[in-house]
Specification:
The chain is an alpha/beta fold. The chain folds into three domains: 9-168, Rossmann fold; 189-350, Rossmann fold (3-Layer(aba) Sandwich); 355-529, Rossmann fold (3-Layer(aba) Sandwich). It is built from 23 helices and 18 strands. Helix 17 links the parallel strand 13 (378-381) and strand 14. Helix 1 (9-19) runs parallel beside helix 8. The radius of gyration is 24 Å and the shape is globular. The chain starts with 8 loop residues before the first helix and ends in a 10-residue tail after the last strand. Belongs to the TPP enzyme family. Residues 191-328 form the Thiamine pyrophosphate enzyme central domain. Residues 382-527 form the Thiamine pyrophosphate enzyme TPP-binding domain. Residues 8-120 form the Thiamine pyrophosphate enzyme N-terminal TPP-binding domain. InterPro entries: DHS-like_NAD/FAD-binding_dom, THDP-binding, Thiamin_PyroP_enz_cen_dom, Thiamin_PyroP_enz_TPP-bd_dom, TPP-bd_CS, TPP_enz, TPP_enzyme_TPP-bd.
Length: 539
Amino acid sequence: MTPHDPPRAADALAQRLAEAGCRRAFGMPGGEVLTILDALKGAGIAFHLVAHENAGGFMAEGGHHMDGAPGVLVATVGPGALNAVNTVANAWQERVPLIVLTGCVDAEAAETYTHQVLDHRAVFAPVTKATFTLSADEADTIADKAVAAATEGRPGPVLIDVPIAVADAPAGPARRRRVPAGPVAPAGPDLDRARAMLDAAERPVIVAGLDLLNDGAADDLARAAARLGWPVVTSYKAKGVLSEHNALSLGGAGLSPRADKVLVPLLQSADTILLAGYDPIEMRPGWREIWDPSRQNVVEIAAAPNHHYMHQATLSFTCDTGAGLRALTDGLAAKPVWADGAIEDARTALDRAFPEDEDWGPAAVIAECRAALPPGTIATVDSGAHRILLSQMWRCEAPRRLLQSSGLCTMGCALPLAMGAKIAAPERTVVAFTGDGGLLMGAGELATLAETGLPVIVVVFVDASLALIELKQRQRQLANSGVDFARHDFAAVARAFGGAGHRVGSRAALRAALAEARTHDGFTLIAADIERGAYDGRI
């Protein structure tokens, strides 16, 4: 297309997003955002139409996890913007850089006009790092500020509200770009104290979290763990930051009572805990104050100061987590640790807690999929009982191989996360694991999946119940209420949308369906029928 001369404010905005690496945008257009769509196309950013703005935000997140660029979500005025609140709140809690572009009625018109007039900035302020209203004269500056706010420190979503007339107005001149801050490492007496604590450790554990991924510090963690020989526990979002095939990896923690029954006592018996980019946004109440800095040495490196009070530390450093790991551990010599064999015992206990040999059920589904799908597969998972089980059983050899909502824990995310990941990384095998309730929330995106031709595999755990909530209901000895629904034929639904559909109830049938799915040109949905109560004693 022919560039506008002079550039419009929307063009200045789109160009800055392209400079940040953005190549995709997702959403549902309205008349108020047509200039934005035109500008995105001119900047080389492809727009993908979705069935619902909430799914569009998750698709944008899935793409971000593949290439590291901020996600872009476009929503029109009023109801379109409000449809996006859930996915923006998710990005806020999941530390995802998401640029949200909304159209709005011009301020002058709003003085005498009320239809769909809504203060988007007030709505989104509690769940974003920053909000802006685009102006023509400062479009370039506002776009630059938005990218900086979304990507620096702990990442998160940013809203840019674009008045209709402003989008088309000539843009003011581009100003000088701000130089991004370089990585900061710990220094001084506290660093010396921390290194002495680590050097003296006899029963150490590293707890690794999401900040490491956002700082690109996976290699720093792997080097430190290998050099020191220290075991590593991760949050769910950080799974694979140290390969879970590594003998030092104890896997993910924070949600499964069965896993926590092993890992929490281990942490409480440690003499030294290194919190490496550990962000407790993912953790449950049982992880509040589970270590005691008055009797344990707890050294924390994090991307942001501790204002959450989920835990405290002996020494805390706010810094780049990769630089922090290097400053704390470089030059330390490996020493024998955990002489009592507690780490080997913990690893054995975790393997026994999540066996893979059941004839049929959710663990069998996960085990068969893990065995059938190739190394490097990207898996996504929706919230529910299946997510707890899969997050323990699905071993990740690298970061961002299992995508989920573990901060906000919203349902309906697995399918759009998988679609966004596949669009950004078409060479990868991508599988979405969802419960039947989660799929029903966003079943319209099966149409989007068919229209894009993406060969994504969708595995649905079909038990006609909100299984995790039903389990909690029984555990509290409450009457069954509001958790059950019909057992639908999801395979037929998939075929109706143009995909391949399979309904399975055995390992052999699942293996056959997976083999077919890997050669199918379009998407495949595999509905795995399991019994109600199948998660009892397993999560």
